[in-house]
Amino acid sequence: MNLHAFRMFYEVVEAGGVTKASERLRISQPAVTAQLRNLERELGLVLFRPHGRGLALTEAGELLAEQGRRLFSLERDIEREAERIRLGERGKLRIAATYLPANLLLPGWIASWKRRCPDVDIVLTTLNSQEAFESLLRYEADLAVVGGGRALPAGLGCVPLLHDELWFIVPGEHPLAGRKATLAELLAEPFVVREEGSSGREQLMALCQLHGVPAPHIGLQCSGTAETIRAVAAGYGAALASALEARESAERGEIGRVAVDGIRIGNPIGLYTRSGEPLAPVAGLFARFIQSGRE
Questions:
Q1: DSSP 278
Q2: Which of 64, 111, 114, 248 has its Cβ near the most Cβ atoms within 10 Å?
Q3: CB 200, CB 147: distance < 8 Å
Q4: What confidence score (pLDDT) does residue 50 get?
């Protein structure tokens, strides 16, 4: 069926006649009439009958007019839905994030954003930095929010969000808690570390290589920073942990920070995307939101 001709039919019905429909559509009356005749020939139906000086719908015309109302109402719904998708107000957003932003930052940001865009479905997956980058490169995530100083992989771009710092921590009652120590003194302690592929573990090992000291004995491996901090707070070992995550435990005296002469380790947190590719509308809207203060 010729949908253009069917639309002409619908417009004539809604306008109440050929003359008003032609004025609304800004085309000539003969052109409208020709489309109606073509539609009747195509369908093998008579849709109008003479009525006074105008036309009235036949029974077939009434039935098709009702279907037209449904069809073009659905069209308007589709247009509205497409506009919401274009504006980023509807869709699905997949975020890969490392432990710190996934636990301390993104829940609040997402809650605030969902109040503005309740019809966006969000999937937040917590991974280490290597896995988060791989997820983004494999198109399993739309955005990645990653902490740590890992080198930027080829094919990704980064926008800084905020700056964190990595602290050396020990149990609150440890003799080194709140004191200065040499790197060798601190590394004599057994360490609680994250799994391989995590940025913090890689920075610890790189630090040892840079200063020419042996890597510490790994006494415990955890899959999250919170678990690492709790293990140290419980009285075991030393660790390299995010200041944002460790600060409250330090203020309560559960852990102590150890200052190491000449060593300060940054822990930047950034928003990562695939280079050279425009973001999908929903991802772009969320990216702008978290870059603009999240207010």
A1: P
A2: 64
A3: no
A4: 84
Euclidean distance between CA atoms 156 and 161, whole angstroms:
16
Q: Which two tokens stand for residue 35?
A: 């489309």
Helix (H) or strand (E) holding 149: none
Number of independent structural domains in the chain: 3
Which domain does 108 fall in, by range?
Answer: 91-161+269-291
pLDDT at 293 over 80: no
**Burial grade of 16 (CB within 10 A; 0-12, 13-18, 19 or more):** exposed
Coil vs helix vs strand at 224 = coil
- Reported as a single tens digit per residue, the pLDDT across 68-106 is 999 989 998 888 888 888 878 888 999 999 999 999 999
CB atoms within 10 A of CB 44: 7
Sequence letter at residue 269: I
CATH of the domain at 243: 3.40.190.10
As a whole number of angstroms, the distance between CA 158 and CA 251 comes to 32
Q: What is the pTM of this model?
A: 0.69
Q: Identity (one letter) of the amino acid at 41?
A: R
Q: Are residues 61 and 126 in the same domain?
A: no
Same domain, 284 and 258: no
**Coil, strand or helix: which one is 129?**
helix
- Mark whether 156 and 192 lie in a shared domain: no
Taking each helix axis as running N to C, give the angle between helix 281-291 and helix 106-116, from 0 to 180 degrees, rounded to the nearest 10.
120
Residues 6+ apart with CB under 8 A from 143: 93, 94, 95, 96, 136, 271, 272, 273, 279, 283, 286, 287
